[in-house]
Amino acid sequence: MNAEPDKAFRQNQALLRLFQKAPFLVQRYPARYLNALQNLLIDHFQLHHWPELEDGLTQLRQLPQKKAFKRLQGIEQRILERSTLLEANMLLVQKAYHKGRLRAAQLVPELQQKALPLSYSNQQSLLYIFALCQLLDGQADDAQTTLNLFLDRYRKKTLEELYHFGRLLQLLVHYNLKHFDLLPYLLQAFRRQQSPFYPESTALLLQYLQQLLGAENRRAQQKILTEWSDAIGGAQLTATESRFYEYLNLPHWLTGQLHGEER
Questions:
Q1: Tens digits of per-residue pLDDT, 26-67?
Q2: Torsion sign over Cα 64, 69, 71, 73
Q3: Integer Cα distance of 94 and 50 in angstroms
Q4: Residue 182 backbone phi and psi in degrees, to 5
Q5: What is the pLDDT of residues 95-125, one digit of tens each?
Q6: Are 163 and 154 contacting, i.e. CB atoms less than 8 angstroms apart?
Q7: Contact criterion met (CB below 8 Å) for 108 and 149
């Protein structure tokens, strides 16, 4: 909490080593061991220790089968929530969109059937991340299905920032699917919303997407996409509104459009 992830990592690592040296402590204090392992995984995530995080997730998911942890109430759901969300966010930060799409193929059907006992906020976060991975890995149809599930389940006045990103992602999905008759209405509806989140980056997205709809040919489209890409870098928005580009990797999407097929 004091923005000292290295110090937190060392402390949690030392605590886990103590448990490893004295296994009877795990039997006596399984909840403390679980908390220490979960905190260490968060440290690995913050410090980008990806191999260690993957190994730790494997260890975490094995705990419910061990005798010492079976008596902890709700441990399976707790581990499912933490491990699934950590994994998805890891793939997002790594820009491992193909891996994210493959994971979505496994989990989105379960989310559709409400077979995963996850909290509302975690379900929505997973659906958004998976839809983004599907779009950026070239599967706009799958992204639309996942995103529709995200939007259909949205509860008003909750997770408003994530909903903002979901609405913007919806515009990109429909553009990829060439729904050029629908997009003007979606753009108009978004402008009426007047969301306070990331106003500069949002304004650029709406502006250039509107211009793309009016592009007469591939050459004009390429010019607009290049100008949009330059505008993002030139305005230094990746510094002032960096979170926007963490949750909506427009440079990656723009590169795909510039090298993709003609509309």
A1: 999 999 999 999 999 999 999 999 999 999 999 999 999 999
A2: negative
A3: 9
A4: -85, -35
A5: 999 999 999 999 999 999 888 889 999 999 9
A6: yes
A7: yes
Q: Give the angle subtended at the CA of 93 by the CAs of 261 and 143, to the nearest 5°.
A: 45
Burial class, 138, CB count within 10 angstroms (exposed 0-12 / middle 13-18 / buried 19+): middle
Residue 41, CA distances (Å) to 16, 46, 54, 103, 119 in order: 12, 9, 9, 20, 20
Contacts of 211 (CB under 8 A, 6+ apart): 224
User: In the 8-state DSSP scheme, what is residue 181?
Assistant: T
As a whole number of angstroms, the distance between CA 22 and CA 16 comes to 10
Q: Both tokens of residue 62?
A: 């094995």
Give CA–CA dist 206/211, Å, rounded.
9
**Residue 230 has which token pair?**
């330059």
Instruction: Give the count of beta carbons closer than 10 Å to the beta carbon of residue 67.
Output: 8
